[in-house]
Amino acid sequence: MSNLYYYPEFEIIRDNLKCIKCRNCENQCAFLVHSYDEKLNMMKEDANKCVNCNRCVVFCPTKAIKIVKNEMSITKNANWNMNLVKEIYKQAESGGVLLSSMGNPNDYPTYFDRILINASQVTNPPIDPLREPMETKVFLGKKNNKIKRDKLGNIITDMSPQLELSMPIMFSGMSYGSISLNAHKALAAASRELGILYNTGEGGLHESLYEFKENTIVQVASGRFGVHKEYLEAGVAIEIKMGQGAKPGIGGHLPGSKMIGDVSKTRMVPEGSDAISPAPHHDIYSIEDLKQLVDSLKEVTEYKKPIIVKVAAVHNIAAIASGIARSGADIIVIDGYRGGTGAAPTRIRDNVGIPIELALAQVDKRLRDEGIRNNVSLVVGGSIRSSADVIKAVALGADACYIGTAALLALGCHLCRACHTGKCNWGIATQNPNLVKRLNPKTGEERLINLLTAWKHEIKEMMGGMGINSIEALKGNRLMLRGVGLSEKELEILGISSAGE
Q1: Which of 74, 76, 342, 388 is deepest in the core (most CB within 10 A)?
Q2: Tell me, what DSSP letter sits at residue 25?
Q3: How far apart are alpha carbons 191 and 138 in whole angstroms?
Q4: Exposure string (b/e) for 258-270, b if CB count within 10 Å is 16 or more?
Q5: Is the dihedral angle over the CA atoms 347, 351, 353, 355 positive or is it negative?
Q6: DSSP 8-state secondary structure symbol assigned to residue 135
Q7: What local confidence, expressed as pLDDT, does residue 124 receive?
């Protein structure tokens, strides 16, 4: 891309007094930003190629490099910011649709940050999680509405298949292809150690990961990439992906540059071909059609696995969820507009969908009002950033949360938003063998375990402070939440009171 019309987004500042010309920055950068000039005996840089992944900064032995946001810009204009102008320049040059990675970066409200958690004091004393039992285990799946007994009065314990989690957190769908095999290995191994689940995403399952089947959710998307009988049997649950928070109404997209080697084999797609899932499933145009697929998947897996349906958070999500709950699905996943992605049309990512907090609150209320809340479990994702977000989501009605970007950050992601290029310098969103090996799956596993172990401790502490000793008692308990700086309508949708009430 030409820099004829604008300055580079980032400026690379090199202290030549500190630089020892080791060329480490050159070796670490897959974007070819750094180079050595033999005639001048100095390192040079092409700032136009920099995505601010910070790999060169971290690995510079003398800390001679600094990357800063370039202050050179167009004349200040409240209506035309620099990003909009640059995007027009790009499209004027390429004639193509803009493609972006990760979640929506725009300055929209984050409702989790405007919700506070209540705490117990005297009349309802807190619980000390270090000395008293605290249950973080959850079960996902259809629940019975009432206790049933046999002729002798014994409780009938037959239930639909359930997923057991040690905490209300899972790793969300990130496909093999969009992320590296080493990243998938880290997620799978950490899930087994933590007693939770990870999701394959829509790219099939690499044969080396079948050993983690007890901690795997397999996904079926509109393109049916990598879907076959053995794959469907290789997980404890099957997720039908109808939509995704980062791109509601849009199918999946894996650029052909990532469709190489085992990715091509696993997805059953020719090497070098773009893998584009259609926007709709071509056999699903109604709740009745969805029910047929749900029933078919249950049949092929002998009714032993819960069936999950994943949809994006959109304005009529409560009605959509009500239909899904009646389709026979066991679990509904709702993905908010802040959800991450390996590749999405920029305009879709930044302008379509609604916040997960509002969607969750309305879905939980609708299902309760209709008396079908026990028919399904609710899982939410789309920028769950901390243990506090998990607590707030559960109190708004979620049974559990998916995390994606937070998990990638634990693996070393620097949010440079260049996943779609396949040049991830941290070995996560790439299939380049030289880059993939930069992510040690064992180290990644340990970091993921550390992250969620810390979150689990924090969840216990927050529940203890609320005087609650189990996730089940927290679920849908909106009395424990208070809003700050929210309008009356927003408080009404969330179903919570204002702080001070």
Answers
A1: 342
A2: H
A3: 15
A4: bbbeebbebbebe
A5: positive
A6: B
A7: 84
CB burial of 83-111 (b: ≥16 within 10 Å; e: otherwise) equals eeebeebbeeeeeeebbbbbbbeeeeeeb
pLDDT of residue 4: 64
Q: What 3-state DSSP class applies to 307?
A: strand
- Vertex 457 angle, CA 456 and 459, to 5°: 65
Query: Is the alpha carbon torsion for 383, 389, 391, 395 positive or negative?
Result: negative
Angle, helices 356-369 vs 317-325, to 10°: value is 50
> Cβ of 167: how many Cβ atoms within 10 Å?
22
pLDDT along the chain (501 residues), means of 10: 70 94 95 94 93 95 93 77 86 89 90 94 88 95 87 84 97 93 96 97 92 95 87 94 90 82 89 83 90 93 94 95 96 95 89 95 97 96 95 98 96 92 93 94 97 97 95 96 96 96 88
User: Coil, strand or helix: which one is 69?
Assistant: strand
What's phi and psi for 422, nearest 5 deg?
Answer: 75, 15
pTM of the model: 0.92
3-state secondary structure (DSSP) of residue 466: helix
Determine the Cα–Cα distance for residues 180 and 430; give it in Å rounded to an integer: 6
CA distance 103 to 168: 22
The C-alpha atoms of residue 237 and residue 224 are separated, in whole angstroms, by 16
Compute and round to an integer the Cα radius of gyration of the chain.
Answer: 24
Where are the chain's structural domains?
10-96, 138-472
Which architecture characterizes domain 10-96 according to CATH?
Answer: 2-Layer Sandwich (3.30)
CATH superfamily of 138-472: Aldolase class I (3.20.20.70)
Could you give the strand order of the β-sheet that contains 481-483, starting from the edge strand earlier in sequence? 115-117, 481-483, 497-498
**Cβ atoms within 10 A of the Cβ of 128, count?**
12
The helix-helix angle for 317-325 and 287-300 (nearest 10°) equals 40
